[in-house]
Design goal:
Length: about 160
């Protein structure tokens, strides 16, 4: 009997996540200062790379589920990666900046990610073609308790 897509997904994902987890634990073994010497800059490079790769994979899953926002008659399953950058903060949270190449409103959004995986919008900058000339670049700031931004202003007043 042929394996279902869901069964194959679960089998492969479980095996791969367990492999990645084991490799991360091995990487963690390198943190023991009794055996190794390293700089904060080296540690930041390591985790910048890991966060970046993890974010790329996450974006592929999001893109596969929700599409990429681009219309195409030829192939609607293409997932265009949105460039992003993750910055660890001293309290264990992360800021994630995501660039969206949107023909109608290109933007850069910043999210706060907590240790438990929760993510909240913090702010964004966008090029709003609907604004008057010279005031198209706009900045929006979110309030964590509201659905709409509490501040939305053109960069050039």
């Amino acid at each position: 009997m042929k394996e279902s897509k869901e069964s194959r997904f679960k089998r492969l994902v479980e095996a791969r996540v367990n492999k990645i987890t084991a490799m991360l634990r091995l990487l963690g073994n390198c943190s023991f200062k009794g055996n190794y010497e390293y700089t904060e800059e080296q540690i930041n490079k390591i985790f910048d790379k890991l966060y970046s790769e993890l974010d790329k994979v996450h974006q592929r899953f999001i893109g596969a589920e929700f599409g990429n926002g681009k219309f195409s008659l030829s192939n609607d399953n293409i997932c265009k990666e949105n460039p992003s950058l993750i910055m660890p903060l001293p309290d264990g949270t992360y800021l994630r900046a995501v660039a969206a190449e949107d023909d109608t409103m290109p933007n850069l959004s910043i999210y706060l990610q907590t240790g438990n995986g929760e993510e909240k919008s913090v702010c964004y900058a966008e090029y709003n073609y609907e604004r008057e000339a010279g005031k198209e670049l706009c900045i929006g700031i979110w309030n964590s308790q509201e659905e709409d931004p509490y501040l939305y202003l053109p960069y050039n007043k």
